[in-house]
Amino acid sequence: MGNVDYVYPSANVESSHRVAIPPPQPFVTTLKNSMKETFFPDDPLRQFKNQPTSRKFVLGLQYVLPIFEWGPRYTLEFLKSDLVSGITIASLAIPQGISYAKLANLPPILGLYSSFIPPLVYAMMGSSRDLAVGTVAVASLLTASMLGAEVNATENPTLYLHLAFTATFFAGVFQALLGLLRLGFIVDFLSHATIVGFMAGAATVVCLQQLKGILGLEHFTRGTDIISVMRSVFGQTHKWRWESGVLGCCFLFFLLVTRYFSQRKPKFFWISAMAPLTSVILGSVLVYITHAEKHGVQVIGELKKGFQDRSHHRRDSSRRRNSSRRSFSMFKNYHIDGNKEMIAFGMMNIAGSCTSCYLTTGPFSRSAVNYNAGCKTAVSNIVMAIAVMFTLLFLTPLFHYTPLVVLSAIIIAAMLGLINYQEAIHLWKVDKFDFVVCMSAYIGVVFGSVEIGLVLAVAISVMRVLLFVARPKTFTLGNVPNSMAYRNTEQYTNASNVPGILILEIDAPIYFANSNYLRERIKRWIDEEEDRKNLQGKVACNMSYSIWPLLGAQALALANPGSEVMKKMNKSELIEKIGQEWIFLTVGEAVGACNFMLHTTKPDLVKEEQGTWNNV
Amino acid sequence: MGNVDYVYPSANVESSHRVAIPPPQPFVTTLKNSMKETFFPDDPLRQFKNQPTSRKFVLGLQYVLPIFEWGPRYTLEFLKSDLVSGITIASLAIPQGISYAKLANLPPILGLYSSFIPPLVYAMMGSSRDLAVGTVAVASLLTASMLGAEVNATENPTLYLHLAFTATFFAGVFQALLGLLRLGFIVDFLSHATIVGFMAGAATVVCLQQLKGILGLEHFTRGTDIISVMRSVFGQTHKWRWESGVLGCCFLFFLLVTRYFSQRKPKFFWISAMAPLTSVILGSVLVYITHAEKHGVQVIGELKKGFQDRSHHRRDSSRRRNSSRRSFSMFKNYHIDGNKEMIAFGMMNIAGSCTSCYLTTGPFSRSAVNYNAGCKTAVSNIVMAIAVMFTLLFLTPLFHYTPLVVLSAIIIAAMLGLINYQEAIHLWKVDKFDFVVCMSAYIGVVFGSVEIGLVLAVAISVMRVLLFVARPKTFTLGNVPNSMAYRNTEQYTNASNVPGILILEIDAPIYFANSNYLRERIKRWIDEEEDRKNLQGKVACNMSYSIWPLLGAQALALANPGSEVMKKMNKSELIEKIGQEWIFLTVGEAVGACNFMLHTTKPDLVKEEQGTWNNV
């Protein structure tokens, strides 16, 4: 731009800055590129390029089973760290596993099984170093509500159990397929705000369900919405058991205090990590001594109750998983391939469903503990699995006297951490619409059901994406003082309009879904300009994708059209229609040319642009 | 930019070009603005501003009933034009109306009724001057296939008839509601390519159905897919009636020749417009003279057959309607409010359903004839309605001898015009993916059913929009020789990279749905640059919406972030994190600063950017 003046001198300077039409490429190349961008944006096979076959084999093995990559580099130093973190997460996994299995209406021992085989599979196939495998509350609740709609868990426990395994199996197949087909990006369509709302809603629902355990109620509504639960709770106040309530509140207080302390002093993370197991032990000892099980405090009882063997679940937690993996890898600065992880999770659940496990994933809270405990590799998962195995072999009788109310307290404490009210406040500050979306998902879950909330969250997210596309921002540009730059006049309040020229910018690519809107919106910009008697016949458009007839405007100049626009305009012979001389490299040049025209030609000589461009 | 040099001199020049944070606006204002942009992009109430109450009332009346706007300005000159065009479209409406009613399995006279009341309603409420109201083949076929799935039209004609009226009524309510709620933009999500494919497919299906009439078959498959039809046709070759076939082919040839002639010489548009009526008259006379009805040529018979009275339909044709209205208004350069038209169509169908009409809309072909015949206002619709009324009152007995085969020929001739093969070729040339979309919709309709094709078309369109958002283009910028402009190196092959600096541009706003992809894609850009040993620690990002941590890059500069980005970065205190001094007005300034840094500081002194930005 340096040597192009504001007042446009002649046509031959501009020809040196001609807007390029991108070189034509064969259809196959274009298709290949766009497929690659769609399904392999991170180019996972880049490392295989220009390698000998033997190396390719090793790399391939390492790609499928990352354990072969970090295994050879494993040191005793690492083992020490992994041992500590593995035992820490095991102490969390055991009480949580039992609690969540109860939540899913499954035998409690399934929670322990689910912390045994799946972590081993993940340790071989997963690429995250910090992720701790286990069951999660929301998936457990969904299992209970979806399977419960088909089969009553107490009346027909065997069928219910088999259904749960089948659901886990198909969830695994589904996850593995999504990963293999590189469709993991689908979860990106769930916006952060909807996830915050949905998770908080699900956590609230789970907490509400725990009122049954805390108050020692025997009959409880099967609905999950707040209204049914409240009616059920306050409809039988005479059946509340104070022993149970007091015990529950004490443990909940203990858990919350330890967590608060650990949050304040991250070095003592193990205090909050050990708290659930401590509660279980304390609670069991207390019941054993006082025989409270005979005074209205329900206990787990025999842990090993009949079952063996395989089930449909939802993928809502995958996004969260995804996000938990991503945030940790971001801290440690290594790359996670979401689709590959999807495959690892799928294999984990397929293997799990064949070994009496139900749905497992990588819960954020436990992964955070793992990270804080200083884990180095996925060996921490192996350590956890071994610790759980020992528990299964030798310690199950100890859980006989564990009061259910302690499990409820553990669940509530974990769930309260999922209600991310700070994030909701942040959303309110940064983007009000996001806040509304978040609250809708929350209210959908709490007042409707988890399924309604899920559908609502997905529908709002997709609608929002569609609205984004349908209504791109357009704004007028003005000259920023002391520069050649033209910028949004709303953002730069000191930018000045160029008299007689309307400079528009479209802040998004133009697709078929917004071309009609943009046509009308630009028409309105021109009408409004004319109302102000400001427009003498020129419009300079700074657009990045396309062009269409500007009704009423007397001339149209394009500045910096993108390669797609130039390609399409070239193929539809629109460049000739507009005139190559009206397409500029920069807004400055376009404005210069318009100014030159304005001051040298009569208005009625200015050429009129009319044409149809329906095919975007 | 003029006084800013390529080599960056000091920090105080840049401060004069500081990127502005848009002035804060109260939430209510923002909400109001975004609601207005979403639902009232064309600002239909702008004319009411600053007007006295009486004028507002007049404007309001004119807004709701446009007839009050153009009525007072109506001249005899206009009437002359409208008379000619009205009679022309009536001569087309009568035979087509009868034919399409047959296609919908409804009594033929309903086709005439539907060209009587709805045009009168539209003449009052519609804003298009060229649109001719009437029934269309695709909607008729859909009516037949959707109602046919519930009720057999020959076994239970009264119920079928009532269902058709009910469908029309609810279609009208649905249209009016869409318009009132300003949701007309929903139809924009059907891409042009899918509509071309869908319409061609529907036209093919309609043509295939006409083989029954042409070949004089009495039994015919109820399926609409090509395989069932072909099996039905070739499974009863012994029942083909040559008399019927010969007659049909002759009339089809006549219709196609007249249309070809009129297309070549637009002045003789009336030849092709009159051809259908001529065929009907010729055919009827021929049958009357030769008594061909006793030799296998089926005739309409008694036109007035029992019915009185009210019905659910699909909105697929609304987009086409929309597009037909828009293209004509574009030629005559006046504004059409799509949502207002939606209301007019809805009222027309609600009124129609109460007066024995079935679904009407603004068929493109008839509107084109209306336009070519030189219509000036909606009075041409009134003229057509009167002509149809005369036909209903005095001429119905004439249709007794009209052979069905002529109606089939008329339908086929009209349908062949809907198969827009030139557009398909154009799509192939301009955008291969659009072509694939178009063919999928076509194949879905022809080999599946109209419903399958419709669902396929909508699904493909929405998926495409979602993909557009999920995978925005990113590209590297280079310096265009002899200018200060930085442009896409793929488009401008002569643009040169700045050594040691990677300049990225993101060609779309950043939403939650693409932020993960962009993070990974940018990571890959940086990795690839590092492989080439080209990157010494600087990334200049030309982005319009957001920012996120650039793993591995040693410094990050932002050029020209949009107002939304600045607002969000400000609110999340990210500006301080990046440093106001690393945000630039132009790419040139950012590159200058990076270069200055590169040449004056050691690489390990370059500040590192790390941060989380999940909340887009």
TrEMBL record, chains A, B:
Its main location: membrane. Gene3D superfamilies: STAS domain (3.30.750.24). Keywords: Membrane, Transmembrane, Transmembrane helix. SUPFAM superfamilies: SpoIIaa-like. PROSITE patterns: SLC26A, STAS. It is found in: Membrane. The keyword Repeat does not apply. The chain crosses the membrane at residues 131-148, 160-181, 193-211, 240-261, 268-289, 342-361, 373-395, 401-421, 433-463. CDD domains: STAS_SulP_like_sulfate_transporter (cd07042). Residues 491-558 form the STAS domain. Pfam families: STAS (PF01740), Sulfate_transp (PF00916). It is a multi-pass membrane protein. GO terms for molecular function: secondary active sulfate transmembrane transporter activity. GO terms for cellular component: membrane. It comes from the Eukaryota. InterPro entries: S04_transporter_CS, SLC26A/SulP_dom, SLC26A/SulP_fam, STAS_dom, STAS_dom_sf. NCBIfam families: sulP (TIGR00815). This is STAS domain-containing protein. It comes from Rubus argutus. The lineage of its organism: Eukaryota, Viridiplantae, Streptophyta, Embryophyta, Tracheophyta.
